[in-house]
# Entry
Amino acid sequence: MKILTTRLTGAAWILVTLFWATGNLLWAAMPQQPIRGTVTDTQRNPIPGVSIRLLNSNTGTQTDLQGVFSIQAQPTDTLSISYLGFKTLTLPVGNQTTFTIALQQDVTALGEVTINAGYYNTTRREQTGSIARVTAEEIERQPVTNPLAALQGRMPGVFITQNTGVPGGAFQIQIRGQNSLRAEGNAPLYIIDGVPISSDDLGDSRTAVAFPGGVSPLNSIDPNAIASIEVLKDADATAIYGSRGANGVVLITTKKGSSGSTQFNLGYRYGIGTVQSHLELLNTQQYLEVRREAYANDGITEYPANAYDVNGTWDPNRYTDWQEVIIGNKAKYLDINGSLSGGTEHLQFRLGGNYHRETTVYPGDYAYNKIGIQTRTSYISKDNKFNASLSGNFTYQTNNLPEMATLMTNIYQLPPNAPALYKADGSLNWEGGTWQNPFALLENNYNSDSYNLIMNTQLSYQLVKGLELKTSLGYTNTYFLDQYIQPSTSANPAFGYTPAQSSIRKNQLIRNSWILEPQLSYTLNFNDFKIQSLVGSTFQSNTASQLHLFGLGFSSNRLIENLSAADRQFISTDTETNYKYIAIFGRVNFSLRNRYFLNLTARRDGSSRFGPGKQFSNFGAVGASWIFSSENGIRDLAFLSFGKLRGSYGITGNDQIGDYQYLDTYSLSASSYNETTVLEPSRLFNPDFSWEMNKKLELALETGFFKDRLLLTAAWYRNRSSNQLVGIPLAGTTGFSSIQANLDATIENRGWEFTLQSKTINKADFSWESTFNLSISRNELLAFPDLESSTYSNRYVIGEPLNIRKTYNYEGLDPETGLYQFTDYNEDGQLTFQDDREGITDLNPVYYGGFQNSLRYKGFTLDFLFQFVKQQNYNALYSLGQPGRMGNTIPEAFDRWQQPGDQSTYQAFSTGANRPLYLRYLNYNQSNAMITDASYIRLKTLALSYSLPENLIPGVNCSITVQGQNLLTITDYKGFDPESIYPNSLPPLQVFTTGVQLNF
# Structure
């Protein structure tokens, strides 16, 4: 953990010292005067409960919820400002009547005190819930575009995978497992500076062909502008968000301005990205051997006319490494960011901007561009009672990419002796119409433009001491437009296509939302007893509209982007939805002797996604903690510096089902009646449609040893989600295949989380800090009524996780027949999809975590993170197809059966014409033989920086950095990448960057 330091400037210290040394005689006779001030941490977060006292006096006070204090003092007095986890600061009063004080963190990890819990701030010491945190320093060490990438391997209980290495792609995140049967029902709540944003994918599968897994809305956030990211996990931390916090909450806080002289920060990074993992495939000689043997095994002596790779049409001596051709280029990475910040003790500001450009590893001039502006202004009145802040984030993004999934498939579908890509004149080579030139896909074009605006205003006023009125008003606007163009030139000329077959798809998505949250908080301190209370309400409205258009047939490909020029235009989708949400919430926190804590939260939610009588529901939680290290007899233990037991239990809900799912709905039909378009029913009304429920339980132990140089946290949790919102199958006679309803199915996620932090060395010139986290999780379907008779019987098994694959159980290869063998569970002599797929493979991670280290020697800093995952996934052969057909395969396939008695791994080669071999291969492809160990250890990040001596460039702090991402992967997995969850997706890139950071 990097220790933030705050200090008065040299000039300020000189002034304070001169006034104190020369003014004692003049001020000795002066009467007391009111002294006011504000106490914050180094991130400008106010700290309540800070002790302010006069040295050599019994006079003292504490800061309120906004970190504000007032005390009577003489100019000769000295203020002592102290708070647990921060270094005590002493300041002479002098002739100052107003102070703005920023406390610097203590050297222990507990000194990283101020934690954003959403509607309130807490501390590591006092928190009763489970909150993981990543700071700006950790984020800035990584060359990432999406903030979620900066969390991988750093948080226990938070499992993140990257869908694709394509710039602008999405990430999958699960906080303590999968709670819902619906894939779209497991996303966490994202809140940026108090404003929730939608987690729904921005793209449309009909146009966003370049993005398996979707387009992430979080791409609009510049990682360099983030001050911290907190992830709320248990009921105590999430229940105050009610239904919105069922799957956890991700809080993103952007950087603020600070009082003092104006500062300008400028950062520049440039680097390259490459694909670090490749499939080992056959060369031309090996490939042709496989193909010829396959035809021989199939009894075919004369090669078919379309077997161009072996019948002499194509050059048998030609070799092309299609991985090198398609994904062998270097992606260029450029990132520039700057900020201007400063202000007075009453008004602070920050203005930031960023530009990011990232190309691809594909051939062609493809690039992702992002430009953003961030503003944040804060105001505190002179009496410290009124506070106001305004923040804004605007981002414009463009992206153009090829049809990625098809390009990736060509890597192994193309024979290594396929023809040259281009003719001598530079035109595409179609080799007489004998192949589909993969670079014809580059004629197709995907591009997108998006605008994203997030604004938030917070106002607060202290009515009386301890009582504060606050309101937050937020607004978001997202405009996303993408299109996919398929000109006739992307097709084989043998088909005779003209611009009459050219097409374009356009998709437009607009989202608008506003949120208003008035709140009232009260703090009462009475001797050793302290109460913090909060009550508030939420009013939220989201609207979304989508328009998807399709145009076919043009007189010229030059007109293809003009939809009105198409011969036929179709409106595929034209929808508008509105979601309204209202809630009241409250929190009461009791503290006794600063060692016993009880936290009660409650929320009543109302959602427009449910029918009459079901729109409202109640959620709440209780959390408690006991700092036993403060007890007599324990506090004297030399080795134990901190010890806390905490636990929580609560209920949260989930309404992530989409809008209007409970209503009778109608859709436009493709048919007509009397030349009039007709409506047809598309959904049945369900008046009992209601909330999913998630009950969360957690117990945890937090300890510190040897003056907190060693910190250990162990937590056990159990989450049970019920009342699942799914489609209940209906009889075909109803006219509908299913009805949206609540299913009495129960899903449990349970596990252990461990975090170990160590300050191994802490010297003036050299320090070494380490953090290790480990998560061991288990997902289980506890109940599912009538599962065996439902349409879900082929997907789920009671007592097993949700993310399983039901497969044939592979028993090996029969050495006499050379055929794959599988378990016939019902012993009927046949292998059937319905009755014999009883093999169960869990694709959830068994455990995962990370090992982070930070070493500092004088001006040098070295940070690195190893991420590890224990899991299973499909092997490379799953996507390659049957060895022997046209298309490449892996060298291991040569361990094939050739004659009776062979002890081999694979069947004999076949082109598919040998029916017994082909049918057994299809069974093999759906068996557990295709699933292998995909565990890995990855050097996720490495950053080396050097800070130039401060006096080298007067007034300028300069640091030089070298950073890397995905540098080394240790794995036995045979495939592109063990992290990628989509078989035809581009793996995460290996990125190297160098940069310069200037502060002046």
Q: What stands out?
A: The longest strand covers residues 568-592.
